[in-house]
Predict the 3D structure of the following.
Amino acid sequence: MICLPAECEARIKQAGEAAYPNECCGILLGTVRGTGVKAVDRLVPVRNAFGAEEQYHRFQIEADDLFKAEQEARRLHKEIVGFYHSHPDHAASPSDFDRDRAFPFYSYIIVAVGQGRANDMTSWELAADWSRFEPEEIERALADSRG
């Protein structure tokens, strides 16, 4: 399960709409509770570094952006708990491309953006054997985000 503050959910949807018809992307910072629930409390939006002609259905996070997010997480005594991106005019379910670039443990939040309007949002975690994504429940939190 991943706990996502309402403000973070709104910001992910806004990012998806702003990037439309291309994919947006970003990094989720937070903590992992003793129960294994990942609690997001900060978003790190990043530039989609995939080639411009393919951004409508692909995203890429540069190593330098990931490194900077890791530094910020350490400074805040947090960790990277996952990533988010949008699927313009497509379902909020991971593609084979997404699976081939994912790692177990992390949450992968996807927001569907149809005709420029964000709608369905889902979260996924890659199976330990890397074979498939498993759906992950999103607990909508009322607490404000500082991210």
User: Anything to note?
Assistant: The domain at 2-141 is CATH 3.40.140.10 (Cytidine Deaminase; domain 2). The chain has one domain: 2-141. The chain has a mean pLDDT of 95. The longest strand covers residues 79-88.
